[in-house]
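Deliverable D2.4 — example input (structure tokens):
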């Protein structure tokens, strides 16, 4: 058992912290909205604290999963931040989808007080978090990574150390670029099949195990056809992630024409009031009924 703290109990963090606790690790949680922390304790046991600094007291490993760079800085830095309360030799693991820049910033501050750091954004959505089946892309020193990898196994099916600090966030950007293009391609294919009068269930059976098969096809094709989007990874969140991608692309000189196009489709969904729909809602923009 490892004494842990978990900061951020949104749709991802709440179940992830639950898996950590269920694996036998004493866990203290913090959430900006205290009622969520109270609800987590009611469900999972453990304890909550009123500040990140108090939550991490005595913890050997601290996990964070919040919204963006600014949210991350607000719970890590400052007199009440996590780093102010972490002990020498402990490790901070950031599961937020954020910039590689902020990962390096936190790693440098952590190193100054002999605290390890791993940037570890996740993929798999709310269902992956709830089922303990996330994919985690990590950046950090190998000796630091090995101390927290067994803990992350409580809520992951795949954990890969990609490279130095920041590599996890850069890999998550690659992931989001792939997803945007995949969903748009799937949306166009399903709409084409529907308009052609095909039995789309049979079409999917015919192609899903071939070269066009994907997680998106397996998990989102039916809900897209049923026009069900009240689940999964929200358009608002994807546009936040794409913003990080475009900033990094400009810095390194990468060209992302398809991603830029899909981002504008998501912007249209937001303008139409559908920012909380799942990212698979791109198909709605192709319909005329």
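Example output (designed residues):
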């Amino acid at each position: 058992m490892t004494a842990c703290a978990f900061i951020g109990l949104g749709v991802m963090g709440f179940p992830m912290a639950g898996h950590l606790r269920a694996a036998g690790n004493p866990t203290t949680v913090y959430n900006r909205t205290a009622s969520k922390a109270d609800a987590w304790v009611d469900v999972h046991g453990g304890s909550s604290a009123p500040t990140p600094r108090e939550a991490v007291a005595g913890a050997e490993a601290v996990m964070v999963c919040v919204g963006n760079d600014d949210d991350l800085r607000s719970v890590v830095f400052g007199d009440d931040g996590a780093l102010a309360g972490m002990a020498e030799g402990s490790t901070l693991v950031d599961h937020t989808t954020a910039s590689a820049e902020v990962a390096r910033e936190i790693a440098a501050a952590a190193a100054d007080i002999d605290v390890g750091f791993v940037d570890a954004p996740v993929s798999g959505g709310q269902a992956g978090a709830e089922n303990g089946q996330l994919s985690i892309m990590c950046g950090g020193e190998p000796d630091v990574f090995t101390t927290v990898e067994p803990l992350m196994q409580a809520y992951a099916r795949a954990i890969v150390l990609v490279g130095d600090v920041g590599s996890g966030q850069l890999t998550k950007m690659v992931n989001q670029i792939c997803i945007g293009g995949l969903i748009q391609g799937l949306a166009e294919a399903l709409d084409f099949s529907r308009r052609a009068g095909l039995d789309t269930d049979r079409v999917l059976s015919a192609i899903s195990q071939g070269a066009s098969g994907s997680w998106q096809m397996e998990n989102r094709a039916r809900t897209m056809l049923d026009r069900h989007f009240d689940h999964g990874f929200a358009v608002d969140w994807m546009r936040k992630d794409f913003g990080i991608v475009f900033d990094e692309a400009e810095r390194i000189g990468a060209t992302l024409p398809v991603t830029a196009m899909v981002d504008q489709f998501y912007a249209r969904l937001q303008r139409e009031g559908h920012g909380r729909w799942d990212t698979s809602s791109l198909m709605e923009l192709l319909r005329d009924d």
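The chain has a mean pLDDT of 97.
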